[in-house]
Amino acid sequence: MNRVAQPFARAMLVSAALQAVLFACPFAAQAQTGLDPKWIAYSRAGAGNSSLQCFTPNNVAVSGGYLALTTKLETAACRSIDLPQAEHKYTSAFVAMRSFNFLYGTVEVRAKFAGGNGSGAWPAIWFLDSSCQASDPTGTDDPCNGNEIDMTEILGGNFSQVNQQIHIDNFKHNDGCQPLVADTSRNFHTYQMDWSAGSLVFKIDGRTTCTIQNKFVPSAPMYLKISVYTGGYGGPVKESTLPWTALIDYAKVTQGSNVIFEDQFNDSPAAPPAPKSKQKKGKVQ
To answer: pTM of the entire structure?
Structure first.
């Protein structure tokens, strides 16, 4: 996904004045009703080679125990620090950890994507270096370290194959795997990544699907991002398939036996999470 985050022209320095603009920028939308404030819903244009949509917090909702990310055939005007103000044919959704980041641990996300084979949807669950975290809601056009991990990415409109990959040192290292899996737009799957020094082990539904062991595995804190782009590496958009709604059941990060980040996506962030066995009862999968 750093194909998206990689800016067209990176500045050599970011002044204190620019930093002030970034933090005050209207692109950095506040949490929406139901979305815990530990997340941020982006409000900006896409970037790089997938700039067909405007990301809007209006397309982010927490309902029925799920985080719902919706993509629509809906004309909207938006911009980012990568792109000037322009009108786009689609709106979509993008959320990320607002300020939390971590170094090493096990990440688990249960999700069902949207769009389906040949739709042009490009969903991803991915991680970017924490040096990009403050400016990412505005477009990441700064000299941050773009090292990236794609835990789960659907490319080319093939929802029966998952891309699990890293992009390191300006695409110098791009190790990864593309395991086959039951249609990710029709089935919930649990995506897991075990991250330790020099090692990444990816799993789907408890089955190991990819292992990367090398010294260039990221070794600095990262943050979780969940996005749905239109077109680009998703292939041509088939408008008859819209709208799309991806559902995220839960996201969790553990280090050893300690849960350091978790969201069950209950309707009210203030409410304590329901017991797992009860919370999942009756969910349509």
So the answer is: 0.84
